[in-house]
């Protein structure tokens, strides 16, 4: 039978006269030793039932269902041909149809066999033309219902402000689209058009462009039914000035960003108290905003945005994303599956037919996540990693990893008044940090809609290579990509022509074209890893710069860190030469990035190939390779692979390791700037001792393993042998032991949503569109979050209600909460180097962190006793029990009872932290 939840199993069974009386039992072990009911359960023959069994009450329920047939939609949209409907379950079939004037009047019918012999209704079903409907048919009652829906449609602004490239308009209603455009002298005269398909084949106006006044900002509105275009002038482009304590109230011209926004970066460093500023229009204080000065905190740096349309000021502190990310702990959320704050934006994926309408794949959203931020803080987490937020398009795109537009947030996450910026601001308001998952390796199976038109356009460029002859550029799209616009027709043959040819070639190689992917060979970085992930050529400067520009926007919005997907499918050389320095430049040197190098091996090295192994990406380059053009870059990354084909010459580090009992200054001169998910530990986490062992033996290969992000299971995998394709299914005390290690050992602990209650324990993690999400590790979690909680600080809460109270009281939830409290109180557990020298016992280690204000030393023993020898003398206080040991001869023995339990002896420690629970107790 198929598990539905932890106590419920079901099966769909047909009875077809196989025995005299149709009947059945539920058998536990397959030998009749325990079966229910004692007498057989009798049902009607020649019928199909959904049979449900409760393992606690042993109750059995039967629900008669009709067998799944094939029913066909036939109507004016498909010239009355047959189109199979999608079976939703419970006798319901679905079809989405767009009626677009093919035949009048618009109508349809439902056909059973495809021959009109059994059709419903007897007369055709009439609908309005030029509309899209979700059509539901009940095969039991033969009832038909129609629901008008909007199908996503895209219209583009193209004009002088954006070099006639495509800018997607914002959809306001079924037929109304809007774009705010700033015309700033880019081309004369200022003008624009509206493009439907991105290739100028359907454009409005049809012939002449819409002319506007330059140096102006306009709201442009387009009606897709009438094709009417309206323009509304919103403002004039002119200098605006920053004045404040940081520049002695002098005028500093702000940077115009477009769409009416101006920016200024200001550092307030105690010049005048209190720190404050204003925005001045003319430089003479005659028109200033706000009327009273805008107060900020001193000794901080801010990005100040001013909207001249609304006169609003937005201030974002820079450096929030800085600091040491090892001080954080991470809660990982698949946004669409976490909490549904706005049912109106719920949607199915195109291939999501198995998911019932009550649980569409796109269910959770930003609004729901905001509503449950206090729950995450109540558990003690200070950072939230969310799945990608960018616009997706594929048959199963609810997870966010199938981008069609990296530069836009997918509207399916948003609600009225709740944008991505709202989420970022709400996270920061709670003193928490937001980690955005990003994908640089690939797009969706349709490609990237901002890059694909460049690919098309390159085919229109013709070169006449006769010496000293004129050059003709055939550009029917009306705009030349990249730097072509600066190269007017009839330029003479020579170096500039070669440059144009190189650019044209780059445009042809927006994507990698490798046909043969070798998982253990070089083409793992140039091939397409799946049918729905078109591989982006990240060695192409055109592609790389587009991705940098796209994701810099999110850094500007205040995102605190990036988790980078599929890192091993991009050369480290590309990261070190391109992406890492660009994002560090934008976000600051402390902007945190960690990558997924999915090396599913129990040892550190992936088949002994460094270039696709986890530690490799933590290192900077020591050899210089030619870099600049696409052809140079591609040749260099291939050579880089060859030069790193064995582990013989890989660097080593002791940045993670104590020298005796002493902390030492780490050497980051060869640090790449990107941390990693600790896949070797993850792959060994079926048993905590195995994960600990691979780390102790392999940490010398990382530049600094204390920055590794550690987790047990995720949205992709569980540990090897656990088994890997199911959410962690080992006994609860194994979970507790793993968690005790993660929160006290080196690295940044990360928990996948629901692990705190063993949510979907043992369920398959990801089976694609072949099973309802409710039966997988990506099930909807919101039912466990109904209710509320009052939070005073990380891990400190009261007044829980509803299901949330039950969830927070779970033994593992309480275990995680206390581990977070302990880790936050002991700097050595966050940032300390570690050693196992002089220690006898199982999972046991010592850690120390020292800076100008701190000297934190701690001894940890997990699940078993340990003796620590050669340690500093002094008073050690156990954070678990409050027990005190005064060490005078350099030795301490810790006695631990129970799997998952531990002792955390802190030198001159604060005492007992948190309350005793199932696993952390005397």
Automatic annotation (TrEMBL):
Its cofactor is Ca(2+). GO terms for biological process: carbohydrate metabolic process. The keyword Metal-binding applies. Keywords: Metal-binding, Signal. GO terms for molecular function: metal ion binding. Coiled coil: none annotated. PANTHER family: ALPHA-AMYLASE 1 (PTHR10357:SF215), ALPHA-AMYLASE FAMILY MEMBER (PTHR10357). This is Glycosyl hydrolase family 13 catalytic domain-containing protein.
């Amino acid at each position: 039978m198929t598990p539905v939840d932890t106590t419920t199993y079901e099966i769909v069974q047909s009875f077809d006269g196989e025995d005299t009386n149709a009947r059945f039992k539920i058998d536990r072990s397959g030998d009749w030793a325990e079966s229910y009911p004692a007498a057989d359960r009798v049902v009607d023959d020649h019928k199909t039932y959904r049979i449900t069994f409760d393992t606690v009450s042993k109750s059995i329920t039967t629900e008669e269902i009709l067998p799944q047939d094939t029913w066909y939609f036939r109507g004016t949209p498909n010239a009355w041909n047959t189109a199979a409907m999608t079976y939703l379950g419970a006798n319901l079939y679905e079809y989405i149809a767009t009626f677009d004037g093919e035949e009048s009047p618009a109508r349809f019918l439902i056909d059973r066999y495809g021959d009109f012999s059994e059709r419903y209704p007897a007369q055709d079903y009439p609908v309005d033309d030029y509309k899209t409907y979700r059509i539901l048919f009940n095969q039991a009652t033969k009832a038909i219902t129609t629901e008008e829906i909007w199908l996503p449609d895209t219209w583009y602004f193209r004009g002088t402000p954006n070099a006639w490239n495509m800018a997607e308009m914002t959809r306001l209603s079924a037929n109304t689209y809007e774009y705010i455009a700033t015309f700033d002298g880019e081309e004369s005269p200022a003008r624009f058009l509206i493009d439907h398909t991105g290739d100028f084949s359907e454009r409005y106006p049809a012939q002449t462009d819409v002319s506007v006044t330059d140096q102006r900002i306009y709201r442009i509105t387009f009606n897709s039914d009438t094709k009417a275009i309206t323009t509304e002038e919103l403002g004039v482009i002119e200098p605006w000035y920053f004045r404040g304590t940081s520049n002695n109230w002098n005028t500093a011209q702000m940077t115009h960003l477009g769409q009416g926004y101006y920016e200024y970066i200001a550092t307030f460093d105690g010049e005048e108290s209190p720190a404050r500023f204003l925005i001045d229009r003319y430089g003479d204080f005659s028109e200033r905003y706000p009327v009273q000065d805008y107060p900020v905190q001193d000794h901080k740096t801010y990005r100040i945005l001013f909207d001249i349309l609304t006169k609003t000021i937005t201030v974002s502190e820079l450096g929030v994303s800085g600091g040491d990310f090892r001080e954080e702990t991470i809660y990982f959320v698949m946004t669409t599956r976490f909490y549904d704050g706005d049912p109106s934006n719920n949607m199915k994926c195109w291939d999501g037919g198995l998911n019932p309408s009550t649980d569409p794949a796109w269910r959770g959203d930003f609004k729901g996540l905001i509503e449950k931020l206090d729950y995450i803080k109540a558990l003690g987490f200070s950072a939230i990693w969310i799945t990608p937020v960018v616009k997706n398009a594929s048959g199963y795109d609810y997870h966010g990893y199938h981008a069609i537009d990296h530069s836009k947030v997918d509207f399916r996450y948003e609600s009225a008044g709740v944008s991505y910026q709202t989420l970022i601001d709400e996270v920061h308001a709670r003193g928490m940090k937001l980690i955005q998952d990003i994908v640089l390796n690939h797009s969706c199976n349709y490609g990237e809609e901002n890059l694909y038109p460049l690919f098309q356009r390159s085919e229109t460029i013709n070169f006449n290579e006769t010496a000293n002859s004129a050059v003709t550029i055939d550009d029917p799209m009306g705009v030349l990509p990249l730097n072509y616009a600066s190269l007017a027709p009839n330029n003479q043959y020579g170096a500039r022509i070669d440059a144009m040819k190189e650019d044209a070639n780059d445009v042809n190689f927006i994507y990698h074209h490798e046909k043969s992917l070798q998982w253990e060979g070089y083409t793992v970085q140039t091939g397409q890893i799946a049918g729905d992930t078109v591989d982006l050529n990240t060695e192409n400067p055109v592609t790389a710069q587009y991705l940098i520009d796209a994701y810099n926007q999110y850094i500007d919005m205040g995102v605190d860190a990036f988790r980078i997907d599929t890192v091993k499918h991009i050369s480290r050389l590309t990261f070190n030469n391109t992406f890492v320095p660009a994002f560090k430049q934008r976000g600051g040197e402390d902007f945190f990035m960690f990558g997924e190098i999915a090396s599913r091996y129990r040892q550190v090295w992936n088949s002994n190939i460094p270039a696709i192994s986890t530690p490799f990406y933590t290192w900077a380059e020591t050899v210089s390779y030619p870099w600049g053009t696409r052809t140079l870059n591609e040749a260099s990354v291939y050579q880089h692979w060859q030069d790193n084909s064995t582990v013989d010459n890989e660097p080593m580090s002791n940045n993670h390791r104590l020298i005796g009992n002493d902390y030492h200054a780490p050497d980051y001169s060869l640090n790449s700037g990107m941390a990693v998910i600790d896949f070797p530990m993850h792959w060994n986490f079926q048993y905590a001792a195995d994960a600990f062992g691979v780390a102790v033996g392999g940490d010398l290969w990382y530049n600094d393993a204390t920055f590794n992000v550690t987790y047990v299971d995720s949205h992709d995998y569980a540990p090897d042998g656990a088994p890997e394709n199911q959410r962690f299914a080992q006994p609860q005390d194994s979970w507790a032991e793993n968690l005790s290690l993660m929160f006290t050992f080196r690295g940044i602990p990360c928990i996948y949503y629901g692990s705190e209650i063993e949510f979907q324990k043992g369920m398959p993690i990801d089976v694609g569109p072949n099973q309802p999400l409710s039966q997988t590790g990506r099930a909807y979690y919101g039912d466990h979050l109904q209710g509320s909680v009052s939070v005073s600080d990380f891990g400190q809460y009261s007044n829980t209600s509803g299901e949330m109270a039950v969830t927070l009281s779970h033994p593992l939830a309480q275990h995680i909460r206390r581990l977070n409290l302990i880790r936050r109180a002991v700097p050595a557990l966050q940032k300390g180097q570690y050693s196992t020298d002089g220690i006898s016992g199982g999972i046991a280690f010592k850690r120390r962190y020292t800076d100008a204000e701190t000297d934190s030393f701690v001894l940890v023993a997990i699940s078993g006793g340990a003796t620590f020898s050669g340690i500093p003398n002094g008073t050690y206080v156990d954070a678990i029990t409050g027990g005190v040991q005064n060490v005078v001869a350099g030795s301490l023995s810790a006695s631990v009872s129970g799997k998952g339990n531990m002792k955390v002896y802190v030198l001159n420690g604060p005492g007992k932290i948190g309350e005793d629970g199932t696993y952390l107790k005397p």
